[in-house]
Amino acid sequence: MTLRVVEWSTGTVGRHAIAGIDARPDLELVGVWVSSPDKVGKDAGELAGLGRDLGVVATDDRDALIALRPDCIVHTAMTDDRVMESIEDLIVFVENGINVVSSGPVVLQFPQGILPDSLLERIAAAGRTGGASLHVNGIDPGFANDVLPLSLTSLSQRIDEVRCQEIADYSTYYQPVVMRDLFGFGQPMDTTPLLLSPGILSMGWGSVVRQIAAGLGLSLDEPLVERVERVEADRDYSTVSVEIPKGTMAALRFEVAGQVDGVDRVVLEHYTRTHADQCPDWPTPHEGDGCYRIAISGEPEMTVEFGHHGENGDHNVSGMIVTAMRLVNSVAAVVDAKPGLVTALDLPLITGRGLVARG
């Protein structure tokens, strides 16, 4: 059965989602939403850089797209700077009977213990009303710190700690708002960026820690523990998103730890550089400019490093691709899922069915 899909945004993730929807034989692209007036009326193939038209014209008319009654919306619009507004958008889609796979807000990856029960009930009620499901995922938060580490724990005899790391150079990551306003790169060291405001790390990545704990049957101490190390630029740096003058923030390490009786048991850790030669004492990928590393302490000790890069060699481009494709490849499973919010713990094995190259 072919599922009718609307792509919601055509930015750094959305353009790759369009390409992925077009590549899957079981999906049909029927609509595209854009926020920029300059993109209205343009063909989806052009916006995705495919070099050919797909016969689907972009629009900023949300009601017209809802009226198409698609089976699913692949939602990849920016949500980091409008969390509550975007949750309201997703509720409207689900209430209207449209299943949704979304890259954000990331807190919805596993919001139990983070968002108020009243909001979770609204999402559940929307699912019951529309008979539709909502799944938020991607790569991080997402596959690299839900399915991948939990799958690895199936090999354990004893688990002392599960540690999920992102180790990456963000110099080619194009998201000016994220880099400057959320992370604080290029800002004075005495400035507190949004990401480092009290409780924000636990909201953004606490869902990762809590979902792994749920998968392992752990009851965590409250609140989660946040640890931060900020690094000052030793010279001027330039990235595709923001300039980083000497003396401003240039690198960031943070942890969100879930403890049991005061002992770290599940840890999400990020090492974020804005140039490859920064912080030589920090871990580095075995290969390339970025990776996800899962380390499970216990019996046996296990480590897995997951790296990726696009055909042009850039791991930040491929990061957008894997985020998009985790959503696109989940569409059929989410359409078949129970109504309401579904997490990675609720879904079957997701594969790239139909995507093996031919010829």
From TrEMBL:
<dbReference type="Pfam" id="PF01113">
    <property type="entry name" value="DapB_N"/>
</dbReference>
<dbReference type="GO" id="GO:0016301">
    <property type="term" value="F:kinase activity"/>
</dbReference>
<dbReference type="InterPro" id="IPR045760">
    <property type="entry name" value="DAP_DH_C"/>
</dbReference>
<keyword id="KW-0808">Transferase</keyword>
<feature type="domain" description="2,4-diaminopentanoate dehydrogenase C-terminal">
    <location>
        <begin position="145"/>
        <end position="351"/>
    </location>
</feature>
<protein>
    <submittedName>
        <fullName>Diacylglycerol kinase</fullName>
    </submittedName>
</protein>
<dbReference type="InterPro" id="IPR036291">
    <property type="entry name" value="NAD(P)-bd_dom_sf"/>
</dbReference>
<dbReference type="GO" id="GO:0008839">
    <property type="term" value="F:4-hydroxy-tetrahydrodipicolinate reductase"/>
</dbReference>
<feature type="domain" description="Dihydrodipicolinate reductase N-terminal">
    <location>
        <begin position="10"/>
        <end position="75"/>
    </location>
</feature>
<dbReference type="GO" id="GO:0009089">
    <property type="term" value="P:lysine biosynthetic process via diaminopimelate"/>
</dbReference>
<keyword id="KW-0521">NADP</keyword>
<keyword id="KW-0560">Oxidoreductase</keyword>
<keyword id="KW-0418">Kinase</keyword>
<dbReference type="InterPro" id="IPR000846">
    <property type="entry name" value="DapB_N"/>
</dbReference>
<dbReference type="Pfam" id="PF19328">
    <property type="entry name" value="DAP_DH_C"/>
</dbReference>
